[in-house]
C-alpha cells in the first residue's frame, strides 16, 4: 500500500478555448484536431467550447443555445459533434434538427426545445460572443491558449502543432 499523502497534487489543466459556431463547416473540420488534442492530453487539457455564432448562419444562435442545454444535460461535446456533422441539414431544417439530435443522443429533447423557446441560455451565448469580440475573434474556429489567439477560420494548417507546442511548454 503506497502512501498518497506525500504525493504532489496534479497540476491544473491547460485551458484551450475553442470559439466555435455550429453551422460552420470549418468548425466541423476542426473537430479532428480537437479529438486529437483530447486523445494526446486527456485531463491535462481542458477544452472549453465558446460560442461565436455568425450572423450569416441563421440557425447558429439557436444551435449554441441547444448546445448549452445539452451541456447541462451532460452531453455537450457529443451534441456539438453530432450537430457539426450535419451542418448542411442544419442549414435546411433549423431548430427541428437541433431537437432531433437531442432525441437521438438520449437527451431530454422536450427540454432542449423548451430552452430554445424560453431563451434560458441566451446570456451565456451573448457573453461568449461579447468576450470573443473583445479579444479579437472575427471568425470560427478560433483557438485561445495561454493568451494566444490562433485563427482557424483562415487556415487550420499547423494550428494543432502550435497548440501542442504551447500545451507542452505549459505542462513541462
Task: Tell me, briefly, the overall form.
Answer: globular
Query: How large, in whole angstroms, is the Cα Rg?
Result: 17 Å
Work out the number of β strands.
4
Distance linking N and C termini? 29 Å
Q: Poorly predicted ranges (pLDDT <50, ≥5 residues)?
A: none
Strand content: 5-15%
Q: Could you give a short account of the major beta sheet? A: 4 strands, mixed
Class based on secondary structure composition and strand pairing: alpha+beta
Task: Explain the overall architecture.
The chain is an alpha+beta fold and 172 residues long. Helices cover 53% and strands 13% of the residues. The chain is built from eight helices and four strands, in the order βαβααααααββα. A four-stranded mixed sheet has the order 2-1-3-4, sandwiched between helices. Helix 2 packs antiparallel against helix 3, helix 2 crosses helix 6 and helix 5 packs antiparallel against helix 6. The longest helix is centred in the N-terminal third of the chain and has 17 residues. It starts with 13 loop residues before the first strand and ends with a helix. The model has no long low-confidence stretch (mean pLDDT 92).
Index terms:
4 strands; 172 residues; four-stranded mixed sheet; 8 helices; alpha+beta; 13% strand
Amino acid at each position: 500500500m503506497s502512501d498518497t499523502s506525500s504525493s504532489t497534487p496534479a497540476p491544473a489543466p491547460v485551458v484551450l478555448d475553442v470559439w466555435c459556431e455550429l453551422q460552420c463547416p470549418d468548425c466541423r473540420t476542426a473537430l479532428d484536431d480537437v479529438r486529437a488534442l483530447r486523445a494526446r492530453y486527456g485531463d491535462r487539457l481542458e477544452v472549453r467550447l465558446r460560442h461565436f455564432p455568425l450572423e450569416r448562419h441563421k440557425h447558429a444562435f439557436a444551435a449554441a443555445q441547444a448546445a448549452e442545454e445539452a451541456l447541462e444535460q451532460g452531453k455537450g461535446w457529443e451534441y456539438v459533434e453530432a450537430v457539426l456533422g450535419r451542418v448542411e441539414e442544419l442549414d435546411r431544417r433549423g431548430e427541428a434538427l437541433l431537437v432531433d439530435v437531442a432525441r437521438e443522443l438520449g437527451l431530454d429533447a422536450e427540454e432542449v426545445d423548451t430552452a430554445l423557446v424560453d431563451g434560458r441560455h441566451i446570456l451565456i451565448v451573448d457573453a461568449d460572443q461579447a468576450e470573443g469580440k473583445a479579444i479579437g475573434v472575427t471568425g470560427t474556429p478560433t483557438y485561445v491558449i495561454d493568451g494566444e489567439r490562433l485563427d482557424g477560420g483562415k487556415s487550420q494548417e499547423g494550428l494543432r502543432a502550435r497548440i501542442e507546442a504551447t500545451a507542452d511548454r505549459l505542462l513541462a
